[in-house]
Structure formats: structure tokens, C-alpha cells
Amino acid sequence: MSARARWSRVRAVCFDMGGTLVRPEAVATTGQVAQILGISLPEARALMGKSAKRRVVSPQDLAWEIAADFSHPVLAQLTEVLERARRRAEDPQLYPDVPDTLATLRERGFALYAMTNALGSSVPEHEPAVFRELLDGVFYSARTGAIKPEPEAFAAVEVASGLRPEELLHVGDSVTADVRGASAAGWHSAWLDRHDTTGPLVPAASTLRLHSLNSLLPLLPAGAAPETIASEVAG
């Protein structure tokens, strides 16, 4: 079955943020923290990952927590890294193919969302203007309390949008968090592989693989599925 036929009832598209809509730093924030503390990247992910991504916290407070755990005199360095990440979140650098793709999807009638597992210290106090213009909503794990691939992360979008899983398509660059998370939630999914990845992380052949965001446009219907179709299916 073609993607256009498979996605014929899609009414909304949800995107991952970093690596999908937004250009990440050359070294991710967690990687920079690992370098400062002299620990491995997996250790830094375990340290910062789940708790720091489930609540909103200031860069200064998170830096204090990390420094206290390691008893290192690195508070100033950690604060600088976390504050820089916060500034980047307030002024996100989008990939070149993002504005036109999202504008076209909006013209076609699709609702558009973003979902991210960002650190709570990187959640902007006010939504960046570019997201207010291009998206109908942004879901931060620090605000929902749920982290992709947890089903609760996807359920938060379903509740806010009023849509069923089969009416939602998620696009992201993480095989585990985005592709498998969305599929487990009953959503349609697409893997955005901007770097032409090879190896064991490549998802199953049935997963649609994109190399640019604008390549999504020919695969979706010319217009979002009308609500009446969804109602008929439910009935």
C-alpha cells in the first residue's frame, strides 16, 4: 500500500524537534555535560535524562543539582552550557526545508504539532514566534511529564487535538523514541534520516524513511482528511 493511501485519514502531523525541525548543536547539551564532568555519554544521559526532562527547572537550579551529585567545582561551566541551550530554544535555528513544508501542510488543512524530550532547563518561558506561526502546539516532556517513547507522551497530543491515533502521523529522527513510540501508540510514523544512517538502528522495511522534510509533501493527501470520514470510520 502506498503512503498516500495508508495516510488517507491523517488529519494532523506531529514532529520531533531537535534533528527534525531544529538544528542541534554540534555536541548535544548532554554530551557537553559529560565532557565537563569527565564521564561517559551514557552516564550523563542516565544522570540528566529522565528526571531532568520531566519537570521545568531553571538552568541555574539544574546546574546546582548536577554539580552537587558529582562534588565537582564545575558549577559555572554547567550553568553556561545549560543557559546557552535555553537561549537556543528561545531562538531555534530551523532546517531550511522546515518553513515551506509546514506552511504547505497548513494550507492543505493539516493540524501541526511538535513534541520533544527537551531538558526542563531548555523549555522557553514563551513560545518562539516561529513556532507560534508554524505550529498549533508544542508538547514538552517537562510539561506533560511523559517522555517519548512512552505512550503517555503521544496521548497528550491526542487529548489536546481531539484526534484518534489513526488520524495522527509522527515524524522524527529517533528510531526508538519517535518511530517505535508512535507505532506502539497506534499512530502512523515516518523516520526522518537526514544523515543516511546505516546499521542496526535502521527500522523495519515497512517503516517509511525520509531524507528531507519536504519529501513528506508528495506522500500526504492534497488535503487533510475531513472530520466526517473519521466519524464514519468510528461508526
Give the key terms:
12% strand; Rossmann fold; 235 residues; 44% helix; six-stranded parallel β-sheet; alpha/beta; disordered C terminus
Task: Characterise the protein shown here.
This protein is 44% helix and 12% strand. The chain folds into two domains: 3-22 and 94-234, Rossmann fold; 29-90, no CATH class. Strand 4 (168-172), helix 10 (175-184) and strand 5 (188-192) form a beta-alpha-beta unit. It is an alpha/beta fold. The two termini are 24 Å apart. It has helices at 3-6, 29-37, 41-53, 59-70, 75-90, 98-107, 129-134, 141-144, 151-161, 175-184, 227-234; strands at 12-16, 111-116, 137-140, 168-172, 188-192, 208-210.
Strand content is 5-15%
> What's the CATH class of the largest domain, please?
Alpha Beta
Low-confidence stretches: 228-235
Overall 3D form: globular
Helix content, binned percent: 40-55%
**How many structurally independent domains?**
2
Rg measurement, Å = 18 Å
Q: Specify the CATH architecture of the largest domain.
A: 3-Layer(aba) Sandwich
Named CATH topology of the largest domain: Rossmann fold
Lateral strand order in the biggest sheet: 3-2-1-4-5-6
How many DSSP helices?
Answer: 11
Structural class determined from secondary elements: alpha/beta
| H-E string | HEHHHHHEHEHHEHEEH
CATH homologous superfamily heading of the largest domain: HAD superfamily/HAD-like
Largest sheet: 6 strands, parallel
Count of beta strands: 6
Distance between the termini: 24 Å
